[in-house]
Amino acid sequence: MAFTSSAAMSSDNKTIKSWPKLTLYGDLNMRPFRNVWMLEEIGFGYHHVNCKPWSKRAKAVHPLGKVPALLVEDDDNQQQFVVVESAAINTFLGDMTREIESNKRTHDDTINKPSRLLVPPPATRLRAKYDSLTLFIMTELDFQALWIHRKHSDMKNVFGEAPIAVAEAKRQFDKALDAIELELNDESGYLLSSGFSACDILLSNCCFWAQQIGWLARSTSEDEPSSPVAGDTTMPKSLSPKLASYLAQCRRRKAFIKANELRKEQVSERNKGKEHHRSKL
Question: Can you list the pairs that 189-194 forms with residues at least 24 positions away whose Cβ atoms lie under 8 Å?
Fold first, then answer.
């Protein structure tokens, strides 16, 4: 499936005014976790299809067979299309949620609930910062650092070993994390002054990923070498009290807890399937 079907071109510029059918494709142990977290923050129903990259299911909705991919079926405008890339999906979901809630308030004066600013409105200073932070996180922390490790360490049987590239990626991660930590707002406790947003999902997820691979300490009390060497790529980066507090409050969010439960359920189902397969051997 292409990103949008040719039959839908006439309605491409129409704003979605009511909730469409949403289907998220991808493995929750990978970047699709960010999108399930976002969907849980929004609180609207969706369907999740668990699939690995390059699988038949993934190739059916993504031109390269990658995940995540979000299939949007909008009956009101008679269109269906696919959104790819975890940051783009979350930004789209935030924009759509704001538009739908705004439309509801316009047609129902009894609705006074403020829009959830998970993604700020376009053409605002807050949106400019949101976009800047989102692209910074995706390019400097994800693509140029964490993804290099995954490609040439976890998936070295596919992409080959590249220890020098991985070491440089670790240095890149350390520098980028120092820079982004300075952006944490003292009053809101999050990246934006308005509070928790979709870019916090990206940053915290990248930090959790780094902790899993040993690039970032899991606590502020984790032992460090007595004489750390500048640029040492073999030791985890220390976790500052400010970043530790930030990650802790992200983990406490109900939507994160729910998304993590769904991820654990996926792992459990997969393990049951493996045991069932072994029992037949």
Answer: 189/245, 189/246, 189/249, 190/246, 191/133, 192/117, 192/120, 192/126, 192/129, 192/130, 192/133, 193/126, 194/117, 194/120, 194/126
| Tokens coding 242 | 């400010």
**DSSP states along 112-139:** -PPP--SSPPTTSHHHHHHHHHHHHIII
For residue 21, list its beta bridge partners.
Answer: 73
Tell which residue, 73, 60, 68, 116, has the closest CA to residue 88: 68
Reduced to 3 states (helix: H, G, I; strand: E, B; else coil), residue 36 is: helix
Q: What does the pLDDT look like over 83-133, one tens digit per residue? A: 999 999 999 999 999 999 888 766 555 444 544 689 999 999 999 999 999
DSSP letter for 166, please: H
Distance CA 3, CA 1 (A): 7
* Number of neighbouring beta carbons within 10 Å of residue 236: 18
Mean pLDDT of the chain: 89
Residue 225 pLDDT exceeds 70: no
**Extended strands (E) in the chain:** 21-25, 47-49, 69-74, 79-84
Q: Hey, what are 13's tokens?
A: 């510029």
In DSSP notation, 211-225 reads: HHTTSB-SSTTS---
- 124: tokens are 């605002």
Within 8 A by CB and 6+ apart from 272, the residues are none
Structure confidence at residue 1 (pLDDT): 60
Name the phi and psi angles at 4, rounded to 5.
Answer: -150, 145
First to last CA, the chain: 37
